[in-house]
Amino acid sequence: MSTDRIRRFLAQAPPTPFLVVDPAVVTARVREFANELPGSRLFYAVKANPEPAVLRAVLAAGGGFDVASPGEITACLAEGARPESLSYGNPIKKAADVAFAFSHGVREFTTDAESDLRQLARLAPGSAVSVRILVDGPASATPFGHKFGCVPAEAVSLLRLAADLGLVPGLAFHVGSQQPDPSAWDTGIATAAKVAAEAGIRLRRLNIGGGFGIRYRELVPSLAEYAAAVRASLAAHFPTPPQLALEPGRAVVAEAGLIRAEVVLVAWRGGRRWVYLDVGRYNGLAETENEAIPYRLDAGDGERGPVVLAGPTCDGDDVLYQHTPCELPLALQPGDRVDILDAGAYTASYSSVAFNGIEPLRTYCLD
Ligand SMILES: *Cc1c(COP(=O)(O)O)cnc(C)c1O
């Protein structure tokens, strides 16, 4: 997907590689979430794309922010976000990070371990704290594994402890990013209902995370379909539904962006045609690790044939697709452009170090 505004910008042919983002798409997506899940609060996951214009576009649609560090808090406040619209969703935080957040007015946190919960009670007294439960989401393209979330029995005791420590308890989960299976949310919502019942707490807030998929090469449910599944699960598992919080990142910003790259080299190796681009694993395409995200490519018309697609660095892992089928025009030459579609999320934000002297991915936000 690329908007007319993006097409007009591309006509100016700035040097590649770069990401171009249309913030109007971001605003529209946040509004769509609000329409599909009325009464919920949306916290855009800043790590997907922290460009100031993207943050302003979220604000314009009335969204808040899921922040993971003092740096992200500062970035959101600088664009005019109110501290009450920030939720500190990272369970991994230093004491100094909690103190920073609290002193800047943040009153909403997520936790999944007792020591972090006690740290919150000490340094962010009286705050709303959601206990993140581990939810299995095997269909996710980029699963979290066991890094975050506690098992239900531990969540029960943390929920009680949070209340005992004078915090306002809630529950949270995240089904893994690019999650094409809406029933993953049902598992999370059912588990949350059970945990709350066992803890003897009437759940007021439930954070169902991000993970809403977008269409790269394969069809995923529409936002309306995800939302219908979530509403049905809530009705099935809660007599009085809690207020929902959402933390979408990818589904808000991916479709707002396009990466324009250029072919550096075409070569035949072991009977396969290798195409090397000026963008790769280390300057924007981190999510091609394990070929997790199969981006759609547009390199113009003409007869196509299969390629192995690789990035420009001297690193052997900087190969984008060698198993994922990839077809590009047979006439492709060095200097030709290749567009990577729906690339607004988890591209420039992962590209923060100039590995091999290649600059981090430049981003242009249209106004
Ligand atoms: C990364 C992250 C998100 C955003 O996930 P998406 O799959 O991009 O929607 C939301 N919540 C937390 C806690 C995260 O770490």
TrEMBL record:
<dbReference type="GO" id="GO:0033387">
    <property type="term" value="P:putrescine biosynthetic process from arginine, via ornithine"/>
</dbReference>
<dbReference type="InterPro" id="IPR029066">
    <property type="entry name" value="PLP-binding_barrel"/>
</dbReference>
<dbReference type="GO" id="GO:0004586">
    <property type="term" value="F:ornithine decarboxylase activity"/>
</dbReference>
<dbReference type="InterPro" id="IPR022657">
    <property type="entry name" value="De-COase2_CS"/>
</dbReference>
<keyword id="KW-0210">Decarboxylase</keyword>
<dbReference type="Pfam" id="PF02784">
    <property type="entry name" value="Orn_Arg_deC_N"/>
</dbReference>
<keyword id="KW-0456">Lyase</keyword>
<dbReference type="InterPro" id="IPR000183">
    <property type="entry name" value="Orn/DAP/Arg_de-COase"/>
</dbReference>
<dbReference type="GO" id="GO:0005737">
    <property type="term" value="C:cytoplasm"/>
</dbReference>
<dbReference type="InterPro" id="IPR009006">
    <property type="entry name" value="Ala_racemase/Decarboxylase_C"/>
</dbReference>
<comment type="similarity">
    <text>Belongs to the Orn/Lys/Arg decarboxylase class-II family.</text>
</comment>
<keyword id="KW-0663">Pyridoxal phosphate</keyword>
<feature type="domain" description="Orn/DAP/Arg decarboxylase 2 N-terminal">
    <location>
        <begin position="26"/>
        <end position="254"/>
    </location>
</feature>
<protein>
    <recommendedName>
        <fullName>ornithine decarboxylase</fullName>
        <ecNumber>4.1.1.17</ecNumber>
    </recommendedName>
</protein>
<feature type="modified residue" description="N6-(pyridoxal phosphate)lysine">
    <location>
        <position position="47"/>
    </location>
</feature>
<dbReference type="InterPro" id="IPR022653">
    <property type="entry name" value="De-COase2_pyr-phos_BS"/>
</dbReference>
<dbReference type="InterPro" id="IPR002433">
    <property type="entry name" value="Orn_de-COase"/>
</dbReference>
<feature type="active site" description="Proton donor">
    <location>
        <position position="314"/>
    </location>
</feature>
<dbReference type="InterPro" id="IPR022644">
    <property type="entry name" value="De-COase2_N"/>
</dbReference>
<comment type="pathway">
    <text>Amine and polyamine biosynthesis; putrescine biosynthesis via L-ornithine pathway; putrescine from L-ornithine: step 1/1.</text>
</comment>
